[in-house]
């Protein structure tokens, strides 16, 4: 238990590249204390503590383990040889280097043991006399000259390899000499040393080594002055600097990524200053690998959670894991590795994986006090954009919870509850797990207003009540919302029953008259509730996302199939005969443009796109995503496309109801 309590202090939750300098300083201190500095001399050489010796290999291995072992428990092994093997297997040390160090470590250990056996003493020093060296060579099965050459060669090999690791050059070499600081706003640079991240002397030392390269790369940004101000915002928000600066020094490619981000999306740079640990994911080896999909993500998170027995720490672990994957989606989108539609799917996959992995843990934790769920248990249903499988970087989650207690009257735990309060409190426990602000922040905001009876109803609904309500009492708009419902987590049998019921209900409620009247009514309500926030608001307004999604839901309901995504719904509206092909094409074009702009805007901030604040690099990103040549042309296209969509919707709903 004592060793377990030390775990978070030994194995840091983020990559600890500052350990490199710490270990290097320890090496130098040992050499100074033992008088082992100066040129290498074979006679009297200390094979354990000396240059290129046993302790050097152990320091190399342990330092690498400290850097990454907080993220990967597989690296937390005691043996040096096993540690090198694990580091090579995980990609933290080249296989050739691991093999070289392993082979030399074994040789040095054998040499150490032979010296001790010859002298019958606990010593690590090679002989000083020729006669003793002859005896050692014979004991090692070698000629004296051969052994001397081999030892010298091995010491040099290990020393060169390890010195290259510990003595890292500042990134970029002399690249920044061509960019004098006078080329930037000197007042901005002058205030850096007053920021929290640069208060410690050590942070200042590392940053001074980094600063020339940072300025050189900022100078190559689309707008260097904008990039400098955005980097200033990043630096100002950093609470501490040693770990982050050491990470950048050891991995200069991260400076390029940071400059890309600060030059294109300053708000994302501010997020990074509060969550710099997400940079760890970039150098973990698979940051730019193909997207694994929801199932693989959920499996990975479940494995991480199972390794953490403490519930609160598990929730924080889930938050760290989520932030890294969320950051990855944003970076891939920003760099053009995925388009807006693909990023939307990935954000939805990530949310589903988080809920799917956390739900069993929440249930198990709740059951320790109140017993296992009565009956079959519950299912967590994703509504809205989550159900449709398309989120953006700042989406909240629309959820409902349905339970089937069967004939059970309550739970059987130490503090039993009757069925209704049991599932209500279990649902609240899930909401807390997702929304509670913790050391690593929160996962998502949750909206449960789409449950039966809205905010006035219970937070969890029984399965019989849900079926009865949807079949006999629900408004048409609630059936529209059900077209996007998807089971995210919970009992598999209940999930199958829910999907069968949903599909049958959609097929049964496909009468055109009530559906179109409901769409017209909701369209009018939305228009009257809140005006759009300017010309770039792609969510609110005629022919924009809320209206397009309403039409898509109606299309899915009218065609009577179980599809959830908006594009399928718009095509369903055509297939049902409600829209003609030209109208469907116009609405698809509007949806594609508006959803792309929404995805882009949410990388920049919470509101609609603001061309006056995104800068040149941000504008270039917007134009790349939309295929336009200028923001003016894009604005005209947006107005024209949405006007055409609005006219199609007007005609489809009837002039009197289209308002």
Structure commentary:
This protein has 659 residues and is mostly helical. It folds into four domains: 2-166, Four Helix Bundle (Hemerythrin (Met), subunit A) (Up-down Bundle); 175-282, no CATH class; 294-509, Beta Polymerase, domain 2; 514-658, Up-down Bundle (Four Helix Bundle (Hemerythrin (Met), subunit A)), CATH 1.20.120.330. Helix content is 63%, strand content 4%. It has 29 helices and five strands. Strands 1, 2, 3, 4 and 5 form a five-stranded mixed β-sheet that branches. Helix 19 links the parallel strand 2 and strand 3 (446-447). Helix 5 (95-119) packs across helix 6 (130-140) and helix 12 (253-264) crosses helix 13. The longest helix is centred in the middle third of the chain and has 31 residues, at 340-370. The protein is elongated, with a radius of gyration of 31 Å. Mean pLDDT is 86; it is low at 655-659.
Please estimate the helix content. Answer: 55-70%
Return the CATH class of the largest domain: Alpha Beta
Structural class: mainly alpha
Beta strand count: 5
Number of domains: 4
Give me the CATH superfamily of the largest domain: Beta Polymerase, domain 2
Query: Which architecture of the largest domain does the CATH hierarchy give at level 2?
Result: 2-Layer Sandwich
Percent in strands: under 5%
Count of helical stretches: 29
Averaged pLDDT, please? 86
Tell me the overall shape.
elongated
Q: Describe the main β-sheet briefly.
A: 5 strands, mixed
CATH topology of the largest domain: Beta Polymerase, domain 2
What would you say about this model in short?
Helix content is 63%, strand content 4%.
